Amino acid sequence: MSGLSKYHFPRNKIWIRRVVQAFFFGLITLISINHTLVETGLGIPFLSSASLHALCPFGGVVTIYQYVTAGTFVQKIHESAFILMIIGFLTALLFGPVFCGWVCPLGTIQEWVAGLGRKLFKKKHFNHFIPEKIDKVLRYLRYLVLAWVVYMTAMSGTLLFAQIDPYFALFNFWTSEVAIGGLIVLGVTLLASLFVERPWCKYACPYGAVLGLSNLFRVFSIRRSASTCKMDGACDITCPMNINVSAKDTVRDHQCISCLECTSEARCPVAATVVFSTGHQIPTTRKADVQPAGAK
Known about the structure:
The protein has helices spanning 15-39, 52-55, 57-62, 64-70, 79-95, 98-103, 105-125, 132-138, 141-156, 166-170, 180-192, 199-203, 206-212, 234-238; strands spanning 221-224, 274-277.
């Protein structure tokens, strides 16, 4: 990717994604605070008093074994988490891991911290501190985390992952419910976000590991039209997950989070070249007929 900095790429943003991210971050924050207030008798009437365990779709994943074998849920997991898990799976089958790229508050705050990292280290270095060969190996660690969490939860019948869960720690750090392990993992995650985009998502998130598998067969995918592609690398350098979009016709990488930041709507300088579509909607426009995105 050396030498790409001399090119000027458009800086369009998928603004609706920013709105959705801010909405869910604010919503979960308010619900978390309200859960604490309810315990003191000062709850906000129009807000849910549910705990984060009831609102986390991954809770549904870890309770599958106990639900199938005993017909009950793991301690602290509610039916709502099971329903959210199903919704998450159905959404992923259609659009990929949109929960990761659009909804997850932990992913959102990592992006916000990454904004500071870009200013500190500039684009040439930010998100490229870890050598590529090591990075490729580390990306499979989250599947080991997933296997460990599912196995330990199934064997113990308790939500052991909550002891180190940075998501739970982020929205409960002011309470006595948070374990020191969760606070440490959260701190390391936010610190690492200054150097690496979405480090927890890339290397450790068990729910991201589950949803990432949907990239292999989802209906709507990131697709690149080779006939109009300028091969300038704009889609590559903007990808928060370091996926080489310019080398693929269809992005099936297990780390894609469907953020759409690589598309012609956001960063690709050529219209209708990197798009979010089904296989029947791959653009066939000839290169001579296509103008840069935003051109009139």
